[in-house]
């Protein structure tokens, strides 16, 4: 498996905090993530012949996964007398039915469509079942883990994909401390984890792509600036070097906030948002609020910088969580038009869409948008 693929798997694993800390189960869950990532990469290949081969391979592996993993998981839950085993079995049965439907679709010959449907189903299972239902048995399984540990490892050792799974588990967990190069290398995995926690904890998704993308990039800028500020307070880096970096980061954050406000206001004016004046007033009030603090921060006032960063984060989170979500309810029937308008703004150089911002958006928003399972 390519290093870039392993890096992507590792990013998803850590960003969404997927480890149950039960190695035998974690190994198989990583196997599912590997299928998702490889299918995503396959979909970038427009060759119809390869798409057929890739889809067939992934579907076969997914069926292997359900047979092997579900059987093992159900045996474990039966041994530890998990009270919701019956409900868990029903969910397993539903997912197998979904995969069988995907297999029937293959006959139509539209392999790209079938692959996209399969990808959505795998993502759905990952987030609705593993991140939710499987966490329900963590306590009872952890309590009995020492009793069944050897048996578990023996069962996993009999897997037809044993070597592949073990290799992936080892590489993702990096026992030697060597980190894989990923698309989020410049952002940093620690920062990405913090961004993810803020995004999901405060439910910041608005449903408008450019707005969500800019919000995520603002969070990235804030998280990075806070990190630099903490390092400076702890004197982890030479003060004069860090002072320059911190001021640059603060300046970049403030500038991007202005660009973001400009983007929102351009969209509101273009499509006659009913509450444009009130929304713009909140933007102006915020700019006035931080104006004095920005001036003081230029004088190297550490208290002012701390307050500025805290006010920035608190205001943005509360504003996004309440006011910006109103935009979606107004624009939801015209999202296609909004996206076309945003493309025009981008082509005219009036807004900037950074590659890293797109990557964060794809990870935290597209993965969040997995649809419900339907048989």
From TrEMBL:
Residues 22-139, 206-328 form the Hemerythrin-like domain. Coiled coil: none annotated. CDD domains: Hemerythrin (cd12107). One of its GO terms (molecular function) is oxygen carrier activity. Belongs to the hemerythrin family. Keywords: Iron, Metal-binding, Oxygen transport, Transport. The lineage of its organism: Bacteria, Pseudomonadati, Spirochaetota, Spirochaetia, Leptospirales. It comes from the Bacteria. PANTHER family: BACTERIOHEMERYTHRIN (PTHR37164). Transmembrane segments: none annotated. SUPFAM superfamilies: Hemerythrin-like (SSF47188). This is Hemerythrin.
